[in-house]
Amino acid sequence: FTLVTGNSPGNDMRYSDKKVEASGNFANKIWNASRFMLMNLDDDTKPEIPEQLGGEDKWILSKYNDVVKSVTENLDKFELGIALSNLYDFIWENFCDWYIELVKPRLFDKENPTGKTAQYVLTYVLSNTMKLLHPFMPFITEEIWQHLPHEGESIMISEWPEYDEKLNFPKDVESMELIMQSISAIRNRRAEMNVPPSKKAKVIIVTDKTDVFKQGTAFFEKLASASEAVVQTDKSGISDNAVNVVV
To answer: E strands of the chain, at which residues?
Structure first.
């Protein structure tokens, strides 16, 4: 993994202990995400896509679909470093840092009917992403895939994932990324002001895209340390000393 990361055809690479450590950290990230998933999967969960999907489900499936296309094209052109970079970014940022965090409340709430959908999407995306990563990290991907619900004897002889036009949800991707951009902006402002995550603050969202943000108020409470998230179309009722963040 280290030798392929950041490599391009014809270039010599300098060995770096730090790069090896970074690769180990990536392996740990995947392993911990997989363990968390397995602790929250029901016995009858399958790596399939259910019919009813939430906005965050459609977002991760679209992102996964994009990475299937790009990695396959990169490998066909022998652009191994680019293929691995795309996979790394998808797994670390999109899947682990965002999607798993977004669906945690659905997984923990056993009364929530969308929790089962989240289990199916998590299983589908992770098991197929392990297939994409397998040529670069054969041992950990085989181990994880064997523990996930699967069909077949080995990941090595499983079918390579294919791009599927049905998994494109551009409107949902745009909506989710607007919400995520807003959450990131709030987090950054809180960090600049040294406000700890334990100190909750009311978030007032002024927007003409009220439908988008009303569906995502729970994400602000979970990921932006909001005591509550209120969506409105004007600045009425906002205190003069409120902190302003524009996205």
So the answer is: 201-206, 226-232
